[in-house]
Amino acid sequence: MSVPFEIPRLRVLARHALPNIIEGTIIPVGLFLLTLRVLGVWGAMVVGLGWSYTAVARRAAMGRPVPGIIISRAVTLTARPLLAVATGSVFVYFLQPTLGTALVAGTFLVSVPPGRPLAQRLASDFCPIPAHFMANSHVRQFFLRISLLWAVTGFVNVALALWLQVSQSVGTFVLVKSLASASLTATAIAVSIVWFKRSMLRHGLLHVRVARSGSPVPIG
To answer: CA 20 to 30 Å from 206, out of 36, 40, 51, 186?
Structure first.
């Protein structure tokens, strides 16, 4: 008999993840946009890369763990300029994240037919989930559907990014793409969470929290 699982409150997860997202994603994009007009595209690339390296070095010097999102951003911002310089093309610099998104979306998609949904693996990286809970057939079916949702989200993101890149200026492309991508991702996360709670509650796989009055209330 499986034991119901209780996920942390959203504000607890957000309090843990938000500072890393701001430092690893929002600030580099903001610096790029601010320095683009003054230093040009190549100078803005260097500034964004410098921020990412500084964030890693500062945490390492203080003996603090470096979040994966910051390491990933630093590695990405290192590889992209190198390839752009090698090809002499700014277009290639901005195309690389889009190709990466397409690859991730394709990975979500191909993980569904064999019954090994990528979403299920990634969920464990963001929230400690017991193995017995993951093994439940209802849970596995849910993550198969969620993997399809994230595949579609990724491909929509790719299509929008490609259209923006070939039709807009660099500054407009970076700003609109960042906002649109963040909005699509946030929407997919919200849908995933609500869907997860309702699905698991329907099958009796989530705890309910007890209100101060003593009456049990669903955590959704």
So the answer is: 186
